[in-house]
User: What shape does this take?
Amino acid sequence: MDYRLSEEEEAFRKEVQDFLGEVLPADWLGVDQDMNNQNDFEEVYQLGLEVRRKLGAKGWLEISWPREYGGQGASMIKQLILEEELYYQGVPGYDQPTFGVCGPIIMQLGTEEQRKRFVPPVARGEVKWAVGMSEPGAGSDFASLKLRAEEDGDCFVLNGQKTWQSGCHMADWCMLYARTDPALPKNRGISTFLVDLKSPGITMRRIVFMTGVSAVDEVFYENVRVARENLLGEKNGGWRAATASFALDRFCGFQEILRGKRDFEWLVRYCQETQVNGHLLARDPLVRSRLAEMAMEIEVGYDMGQRLNWKVTQGMEVATESCQMKVLGARILQHLANLGMQIFGLYGQLDERSQWARLKGRIAHNYLGSPGWSIGGGTSEVSKNFIAAVGLGLPRM
Assistant: This one.
């Protein structure tokens, strides 16, 4: 494996970095892990819209897609370079459900009519998507979902509930999974629908995290009519889209490590510049030791992420590595949040509203959000079972 970039690819990375230097504020620390800032939500949201439109105007949002769908037909490695810079710098507006899951799955599984209708607006940055998978009784056991879709003429009628839908209150469309045949085995009676979230019969309720941010929703569908042409793939063939979604969503592990890498660099700079009781934190033996351990964890994770990206560019199977990255990414962020709280002491409990907050309250926010990183998108336990069964060939439980 050779992770080195060509001169052209290095030049593209520099071009992306220069672009982000122009569109982001000079004191930008990056959005929080749930892609929001607690008390600057509207400001960050508007910045995200502006950045997304500018990325779309450059044809960068899905740069590896064919030109007829709004991309540039560029290499996958350029797509990965772009994503690495966006996630490392915590850029708002480039969200995983829209650009990392729904857009690619429609490109992969949609009809030509669906591609022409839904894909170019994604590439132009004009729409935001959500994913409707989890339900109150179907989280990691996704195949147990109960939301029903019943045929009625040229439509399907949806009834049921979804939960933990990230950013659904800000989204325009949803890639929704529903049960279309309860008589079939549970993973074979599921279909995938492209649902306009402005449709009559849809109501939402925000879910507030411990951080104080309400970044996800529970969504209720009552007699929501969806045109047959919005069925993605075959009826009862939704498991194919779901497995593709799982594989794409687990790339979040590398995204988490990139965000952790940025926050760690801010933490190191803080220790280099801050004195406690007349002594520089960076000279404290315990602080130095813990920072060194954290640096090793992040470097291992970053190297694994580069290996994962390289395998993607070679067209290799990466399901096991994606699960490994998801588990490792969550663990690294949790370790980093704990370390930041220990270094900041009581100051670590302050959010950005306090004049005494360190790093604009990021450590407090990340510490409160850290338990969810090993749950969202499928628990670490589920990922470990997959790694054991598929990656190591151990018998299934």
Observations:
- The chain is about 45% helix and 15% strand.
